[in-house]
Amino acid sequence: MFRAMKKFYFLFLTCISFYFSFSAPVIKAVSNGSWSSASTWDLNRIPQVGDTIIISSNETVIISDDQNFNGFVYLKIYGGLGFQNNNSTLSVGNTSLIIVYSSGEILGGGSASQKIRMNGTVIFQGNDAPVYGPQMASATSNGFSAFSSSPLPVKFVGFTLTNNKSNNVLVQWATTEEVNA
Fold first, then answer.
1. Over 80: is that where the pLDDT of 38 sits?
2. DSSP assignment string, 114-134
3. CB 3.0-4.6 Å disulfide test: which of 21, 33, 85, 156 passes with 64?
4. 7-13: which pairs have CB atoms within 8 A and are 24 or more residues apart?
5. Alpha carbons 108 and 136: distance in angstroms, whole number
6. Considering only CA atoms, which of 124, 23, 106 is closest in space to residue 71?
7. Of the candidate ranges 46-55, 78-87, 159-168, the one whose mean pLDDT is the lowest
């Protein structure tokens, strides 16, 4: 049972990593600036549906108009996301995920008309208290909620992959802590 749980967690972690690593283009903020300015982003275009969007810890991106994503985006905020102007909104689809990491923050501009919407539901308004990480929002969270930086009850030290003579791959791993496993 113990080995089966380890295999399950390893397989789950691997699948999630591959999904987020290979399924979407990654676009990063390379300067403080407007969300709608291509020069703010490393791909020299504004983010689009399907992107993994990263706001680095040294950058602050400002939303000053409507940004609508009628599909999946994965927004990772290590720096700042702010709002400016009335009626500026960020709308994302129900499969989207917004994560505000420990150094990240979402700041409103003071107006209730500044919003983050997920699947049509308002999860942040510009006159709300700032959102400081670590917090995340998804379709099932009904807004931002705190999360632990260790989502699995197992802490991995490392793992190795070895190709043996019969073209099979041997996967070995080591853990330092296992909670309720």
1. yes
2. -EEEETTEEEEETTSPPEESS
3. 85
4. 9/152, 9/153, 9/154, 9/181, 10/156, 10/159, 10/171, 10/173, 12/152, 13/152, 13/156
5. 17
6. 23
7. 159-168
DSSP state of 166: T
Helix H or strand E encompassing 55: strand 52-55
Type of residue at 132? Y
Structure token digits, residue 120: 């049509």
38: left (phi > 0), else alpha (psi -120 to 50), else beta?
alpha
Tokens coding 8: 């399950």
Residue type, 155: K
Distance CA 166, CA 67 (A): 53
- Is the CB of residue 126 less than 8 Å from the CB of residue 115? yes
3's tokens: 């080995």
Distance CA 38, CA 90 (A): 17
For residues 12 and 86, give the distance between their C-alpha atoms in angstroms, rounded to a whole number: 42
Give the C-alpha separation, 164 to 167, whole Å. Answer: 6
Quick one: 18 exposed, middle or buried, by C-beta within 10 A (0-12, 13-18, 19+)? exposed
Picking from 63, 126, 62, 49, the residue whose alpha carbon sits closest to that of residue 92 is: 49
Check pLDDT > 60 for residue 14. Answer: no
